[in-house]
C-alpha cells in the first residue's frame, strides 16, 4: 500500500502564482481601494460582519468589501479602508471594547458614516 501524500505543495504553488500576478513590473504590489472587515470566526462575529458588509455594499457599491482576507486575530472585529496609495484608514475597531461583548460590534450606520467622511 502506497503512503498517503499531502497536497500542500500544490496549494502553495497556487498561492505564489496569484501573488505574482498582483505585483507590477516595478516590484510594487498593486493595491486596489477596498474595505476590509477582519472578524474572529465565532458565529456572533460572523453574523455582525455579514450585516455590516451588506450595508457597506449598499452604500458604496464601487468599493469591494473583503471579509477576512487573511487569518483573523482572536477576538478581533475591525473595519479598515485600504486606499490606492497604500495607506489605510481605520473605520472601526472593537478590540479594546467590552465587556459586554455587544460593544465590540458597531452599528452598520456608524461605519457607513465614517466611510463617507473618508470618501469625500
UniProtKB/TrEMBL annotation:
Origin superkingdom: Eukaryota
Biased composition (Basic and acidic residues): 18-27
Leader peptide range in chain numbering: none
Record flagged with keyword Acetylation: yes
Record region (Disordered): 1-27
GO terms for cellular component: Golgi apparatus
Annotated keywords: Acetylation, Redox-active center, Selenocysteine
Function: May be involved in a redox-related process.
Family classification: Belongs to the SelWTH family.
NCBIfam families: CXXU_selWTH
Name the UniProt record assigns to this protein: Selenoprotein H
Amino acid at each position: 500500500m502506497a503512503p498517503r501524500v499531502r497536497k500542500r505543495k500544490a496549494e502553495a504553488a497556487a498561492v505564489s502564482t496569484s501573488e505574482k500576478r498582483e505585483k507590477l513590473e516595478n516590484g510594487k504590489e498593486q493595491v486596489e481601494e477596498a474595505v476590509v472587515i477582519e472578524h474572529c470566526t465565532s458565529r456572533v462575529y460572523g453574523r455582525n460582519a455579514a450585516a455590516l458588509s451588506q450595508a457597506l455594499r449598499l452604500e458604496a457599491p464601487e468599493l469591494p468589501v473583503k471579509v477576512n482576507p487573511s487569518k483573523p486575530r482572536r477576538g478581533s472585529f475591525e473595519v479598515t479602508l485600504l486606499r490606492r496609495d497604500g495607506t489605510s484608514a481605520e473605520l472601526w475597531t472593537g478590540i479594546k471594547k467590552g465587556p459586554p461583548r455587544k460593544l465590540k460590534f458597531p452599528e452598520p450606520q456608524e461605519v457607513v458614516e465614517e466611510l463617507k467622511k473618508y470618501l469625500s
